[in-house]
Amino acid sequence: MPANPFNGFTDFGVGIGLRVPHYQHILSEKPVVSWFEIISENYMIDGGRPLHVLDQILERYRVVQHGVSMYFGSAGPLDREHLRRLKALVKRTKTPWLTDHLCWGSVDGTYTHDLLPMPYTFEAARHTAQKIREARDFLEVPIAVENVSSYAEFHISEMTEWEFLTEVVELADCGVLLDVNNIYVSSRNHNFDPNEYVNGIPTERIAQIHIAGHSKFEKYILDTHDHPVIDPVWKLYARAIELAGPTATLLEWDDKIPSFEEVHNEALKANQFIAEAAVAS
Amino acid sequence: MSLHEIQSRMFAAVIQPLTDSEQMQLRTQDGKSMHEVAAEFIKPNDRLSSFERLEIYNRQYWFRVLASLEEDFPGLRAVVGPRRFERLCKAYLVECPSQSFTMRNLGSRLESWLQSHPEWIQPKAALALDMVRLERAETEAFDGAAEPVFESADLRTTDPDPQFRLQPYLQLLRFRYPVDDLLVAIKKDNPENARVSSAISEIHKRAQMHSVARQKRQPICLAVHRVDYSVYFKRLEPEAFAFLTALREGKSLSVALQLVFRKTDDQTELLGVVTNWFENWSKLGWFCRPTFANQKSISVRRQS
């Protein structure tokens, strides 16, 4: 049963990212997986193996699209060619909701292919929210935006990151893809309490949660998605689930990708927290 | 500072090339102190200065785009050598940063850029340009569009001089060097497949260098195509290449034949050659079902 208008897919449970090294295993072994998240841009092409594999996955599994280059926060307008291709993919996958990042990454049509942090200003929030609304109207699918991990903050910022996230999603009237690993990474890089972040956002808008691992360096933490989830991140996850109720959850593992079973088993650890949240609610 | 202004400043710093030791440069392109520029909009914290925080993004940008080009152009890397390849890619990306939402297109302007900057590929410019073109064609063939395949049933319902359309993913290219064999050999000897020891890796690198140095001019006509979603190279006779090129240009069957076989008197031999081509290419799925033929065959089936 839907928890709220933004979290209408509480039965999705725990999914994992669809990654090339696992294609063969998934297609031949047909493991039981609640759902797969795909990186939209990997399939916004005209043909060939990626779409062929995707079509086979779609025959058996539920797929949710996650984008990395919509750049809602870039000062320029949305890329119409990007939107056109994205809409074609939305029709193909029938994704129940679609996510991308609360970030910027391009200037005047030139791309960094990075998820760059926003200056937390009211001007940026209004601009970003307007672009999210435009994208949703064009794509005709609910949108949730993900908080990114960051390594820099701007002098010009007028609010905290979680206040900015709240401002944007309220103005855009969209959902939140809450990445609890990103919150942890940013909290260590910027010296804030990650629980204050989780407690400070409109949890009724959480449509999906990301969990992941990261890499610790001497003076900062990098969001590398190449390790298991650490305990402090699981604790943040538990708190988010406690506040939001059972929510579609996805483990990201993008580098040094281990076997399918290892990734899936790591993801399934989330089930105990979801079960506890279900009992509590 | 407006949103556009702050993003433009950070963007300029992020895409500025790193130093040889992979650090952020101390000066901007116009000579300003990068420490001062970073401090204008990035907050320091108790562990990192504004410069160091900005540097994380600067380094990540270059590691990401260079890795992408290295993955897409292993052949060019082998032809010019790894060090020169890296310097070449940095120079290319400074002039031609990504203008697409997907990194698939990062190298789309590399061939034209190299043509106007031959100093990066001398003295093997012709070989290097051939290789870049082949590697881009591989990308296009891998995920290019495919249309429904022409079937023999379609032939019966088309007009006497049909226009055969080729699959959009099929790439037809002329090369001055046999770069198809060279690229296959380079990929086979890719150090990624030989991580057993650095000594073996070194042997493979030397083998590649010898293989590149041995390359002699030998014009070839090539189709870069795919079968079961894998990309393959198929050499074509010049006549077959010209015939397919004519079809790609939209010429009808009779016009394409006239263009290729102007001097042939032996019609029986010609028929045999063309029939053989069509059989082979049809098996490979290179022809698309014509829209007109498709509609006709559907209506025929409905009537029956």
In words, what does this structure look like?
The complex is a heterodimer of chains A (281) and B (304). With 281 residues, chain A is α/β, with parallel strands linked by helices. Helix content of chain A is 41%, strand content 19%. Chain A is built from ten helices and twelve strands. Chain A has helices spanning 23-29, 49-60, 80-93, 122-139, 161-172, 180-190, 194-200, 231-244, 260-268, 270-280; strands spanning 14-17, 35-39, 62-66, 98-101, 104-107, 110-116, 143-146, 175-179, 206-212, 215-216, 221-222, 248-252. An eight-stranded parallel beta barrel of chain A has the order 1-2-3-4-7-8-9-12, surrounded by five helices. In chain A, strands 5-6 form a two-stranded antiparallel ribbon. The longest helix of chain A is centred in the middle third of the chain and has 18 residues, at 122-139. Chain A is globular and about 50 Å long. The two termini of chain A are 12 Å apart. Chain B has a domain at 144-176 and 222-304. In chain B, the strands form two sheets. A three-stranded antiparallel beta sheet of chain B has the order 2-3-4. Chain B has a two-stranded antiparallel ribbon with strand order 1-5. In chain B, strand 3 and strand 4 form a beta hairpin. The model of chain B is unreliable at 293-304 (pLDDT under 50). The interface between A and B is large, with 44 and 47 residues.
Number of helices of chain B: 14
Strand content of chain A: 15-25%
> How far is the first residue's CA from the last residue's CA of chain A?
12 Å
Helix coverage percent of chain B? 55-70%
Topology:
The complex is a heterodimer of chains A (281) and B (304).
Chain A: E1 14-17, H1 23-29, E2 35-39, H2 49-60, E3 62-66, H3 80-93, E4 98-101, E5 104-107, E6 110-116, H4 122-139, E7 143-146, H5 161-172, E8 175-179, H6 180-190, H7 194-200, E9 206-212, E10 215-216, E11 221-222, H8 231-244, E12 248-252, H9 260-268, H10 270-280
Parallel strand pairs in A: 1-2, 1-12, 2-3, 3-4, 4-7, 7-8, 8-9, 9-12
Antiparallel strand pairs in A: 5-6, 10-11
Helix pairs in contact in A: 4-5, 7-8, 8-10
Chain B: H1 3-14, H2 34-41, H3 50-72, H4 74-80, H5 82-95, H6 110-116, H7 125-143, H8 152-157, E1 165-166, E2 171-175, H9 179-188, H10 198-213, E3 220-227, E4 230-236, H11 238-248, H12 253-260, H13 267-283, E5 287-288, H14 291-303
Antiparallel strand pairs in B: 1-5, 2-3, 3-4
Helix pairs in contact in B: 1-2, 3-5, 4-5, 4-7, 6-7, 11-12
